Amino acid sequence: MTRVQPLVDPNAPRITFPASLKDELMLFPPSAGFTDPEVYEKTEELKTSTSVAEFVDGIHIWPSYWRENYAKHVTCPVMYALVENDCFWMSTKEVTDDFAAAFENSVRVDKGMVLGGVHCLELCRVGRGWYARVFGWAVERGVAFGMMEK
Fold first, then answer.
1. Following DSSP, what letter does each residue of 48-64 receive, concatenated?
2. How far is CA 125 from CA 21, 27, 42, 68, in A?
3. How many whole angstroms separate alpha carbon 18 and alpha carbon 48?
4. Is the pTM of this model over 0.85?
5. What SS3 state is found at 120?
6. In whole angstroms, what is the distance from residue 120 CA to residue 125 CA?
7. According to the model, what pLDDT value does residue 132 have?
8. Sequence-separated (6 or more) residues with CB below 8 Å from residue 118
9. Which residues contact 76 (CB under 8 A, 6 or more apart)?
10. Alpha-helix runs per DSSP H in the chain
11. Which of 8, 26, 95, 126 is the most buried (most CB within 10 A)?
């Protein structure tokens, strides 16, 4: 009988995933076209370790406490989006709506889906547009906040 090794050793403090695995999961294969081919040439250089505790918490434990411990206490505006193609999160309108609804005390919650986006949004083709949108939103909110102070 062949024994399958777990992806993560829960006793290790940190884990480093091979760049090829990270590319496949977080950028999708080059043939998918989500990411410029030049990015794949840099992923080995960009590779860094991940805290095992954070990895395990984010997938298995965080969903049980984030609403009560964090989201309900947020009062500032929130801008949230899921990427269309993600290996870790369910990317559906229902999930996006549910997540946004948890910020019940926020003065404003903007939500949406980044079509054509992948988990490493900052490295994919549509990432530049997303960050332009985020910066624009931040300027809008900052100006509105400044006007409230007058």
1. --EEHHHHHIIIIIGGG
2. 20, 10, 15, 35
3. 10
4. no
5. coil
6. 10
7. 97
8. 26, 27, 28, 34, 35, 83, 85, 86, 124
9. 106, 107
10. 19-22, 37-40, 43-46, 52-56, 66-69, 93-101, 127-149
11. 26
Q: How far apart are CA 115 and CA 117, in angstroms?
A: 5
Looking at residue 81, its amino acid is: A
Query: For residues 126-145, b (16+ Cβ closer than 10 Å) or e, as one string?
Result: bbeebeeeeeeeeeebeeee
Task: Please answer whether residues 88 and 66 qualify as being in contact, where contact means their C-beta atoms are separated by less than 8 angstroms.
Answer: no
| Radius of gyration of the chain from its Cα atoms, rounded to whole angstroms | 18
Binned average pLDDT, 10 residues per bin, the chain of 150 residues: 61 87 92 95 90 86 93 96 92 95 97 96 96 96 86
